[in-house]
Hints:
- By secondary structure, the protein is of the alpha/beta class.
- 46% of the residues lie in helices and 12% in strands.
- The protein has a single domain (2-159), classed as Rossmann fold (3-Layer(aba) Sandwich), CATH 3.40.50.
- The protein has a four-stranded parallel sheet with strand order 2-1-3-4, with helices on both faces.
- Helix 1 links the parallel strand 1 and strand 2.
- Helix 1 crosses helix 7 and helix 2 (52-59) packs across helix 7 (133-159).
- The longest helix has 27 residues, at 133-159.
- The protein is globular.
- The structure holds 4-nitrophenyl phosphate.
- 4-nitrophenyl phosphate binds at residues 7-13, 40, 44, 127, 129.
Amino acid sequence: MRILFLCLGNICRSPTAEGVMRRRLREAGLATDVDVESAGTGGWHVGHPPDPRAAAAAAARGIALESLAQRLERSHFDEFDLIVAMDRDNVADAQAVAPDAEAASKLRLLREYDPLAVASGELDVPDPYYGGEDGFERVLDMIERGCEGLIAEIRGARAAGA
Ligand code: 4NP
């Protein structure tokens, strides 16, 4: 299975989700079964490493962010089984890139996998780029919960033989 995490710049939220998910997949013994990458709907930071503030917040939790930014392309919809976006703007932008409706049906929001977020109705991981340091901590907390739910979903699907 291949999962692509998606945000706007691919230097803050989606690289964080990629790093968190990779660690959780390792812990769950699923690292060889599930590949993760990340991308952005915008192209400004293509080739850049993650934002130092995102990298520092992740490093404080023992998570290395090692991706280089790439922009979402039509071909990603073929290459990945699931495209997990950080906010609804990312979903709308990605729908415009998707080759067809079937491809667009691979789009999800990360917080859809967090039951507390679903209950609250607050499904966006907010963009921390222009905010303060505490924004990065909050974003990490949201991403950890979303990835926990996503791992549970993957485990459930495997147990069901999917
Ligand atoms: P991200 O944050 O989408 O979480 O990577 C952003 C990074 C850069 C920009 C916007 C959002 N930017 O406009 O350059």
